[in-house]
Write a structure and sequence with these properties.
The protein is an alpha/beta fold. It is built from ten helices and eight strands.
């Protein structure tokens, strides 16, 4: 079995890259993909021999129809050891390291990183000024991370007792979500598709059944439009999909000749369903590779 949608502490997960690998091996998974939000940072932490196949991946946050839509990008046409780190001590250093088909994606991620830093500063200011929680962005920087993340802030709230579990942390984010979305909107979906294509990624719409499209998920006309925009597949299997959702999106994928993917979307937060809770047969990965070869040669 394989799991092609896993997050780490490099974005908003609670497990480090090594913990994800260790847990995946305990579950006897043959392959996984680390798909952190808007970053490839996790790939700098991979051991030389992880002991299972790791498919290069990322999850981009984009806007489509005024709604937040996540795009999964896979493969990039390289072995996992050649995925560039998408965060460096300086943008100049980053640009000298990354050339060719990576440049558009890495430049894009640098801009998104700046946006995410602004979001995190805003959250810290809101927590301190509006809710009386004494936390600052500068304090998070002192923890030694290359860049602070929402996961690092969440762990701080949990350790200090300002939230008792990840569900309460989510409620904190929810209270200021609209304000953040209005001030710091993510890139348009067209931009995300463009940079993923330039980076030679297989592009998959994440969890279409749970997208906020009139409370009904992504409809067939939306699937058709996204395919016309350049999307290659649908994440048919996901923990928030009911069985009938998976049947529906599998039928749409077949009808419109789109690739099929799936994964747990694990964030490994306490009682939340974690790695391997949704997994797919090995043959799905083979079919994804075939589709990638058809598109990029």
């Amino acid at each position: 079995m394989i799991d092609l949608h896993i997050h780490t502490t490099c974005s908003d997960g609670a497990f480090t890259v090594q913990q994800v690998i260790d847990r995946s091996k305990e579950l006897a998974l043959k392959a996984i993909s680390i798909t952190d939000h808007d970053t490839l940072d996790g790939y700098r932490d991979l051991p030389a021999d992880p002991g299972l196949e790791i498919v290069p991946g990322i999850e981009l946050s984009t806007f489509y129809g005024g709604k937040l839509v996540h795009l999964l990008g896979y493969f990039f046409g390289v072995h996992v050891s050649r995925v560039p780190c998408a965060v460096c001590q300086s943008d100049k250093e980053h640009r000298t390291q990354d050339t060719g088909h990576w440049k558009g994606l890495t430049d894009y991620l640098i801009k998104v990183r700046k946006r995410n830093q602004d979001v995190l500063k805003h959250i810290c200011d809101h927590l301190r000024e509006e809710e009386g929680i004494p936390v600052t962005y500068e304090e998070l920087l002192k923890k030694g991370a290359v860049r602070p993340t929402l996961a690092l802030l969440a762990l701080r709230l949990l350790s200090r007792g300002y939230a008792k579990d990840w569900r309460e942390v989510g409620a904190v984010w929810g209270r200021i979500h609209r304000e953040l979305e209005g001030k710091y909107p993510p890139p348009a979906i067209e931009a995300g598709i463009k940079v993923l294509k330039e980076a030679r990624a297989l592009i998959v719409v994440a969890h279409p059944g749970s997208l906020p499209m009139n409370g009904k998920g992504l409809a067939e006309d939306g699937v058709v439009e996204l395919k016309e925009m350049g999307v290659h597949g649908l994440e048919v299997y996901h923990k928030r999909h009911k069985p009938e959702d998976s049947v529906f999106y599998k039928s749409l994928a077949k009808k419109h000749q789109l690739a099929v993917s799936g994964g747990s979307d694990a964030h490994c937060r306490g009682k939340e369903p974690e790695i391997g809770c949704v997994s797919v047969e090995d043959g799905v990965l083979d079919l994804l590779r075939q589709r990638f070869a058809q598109i990029y040669g």
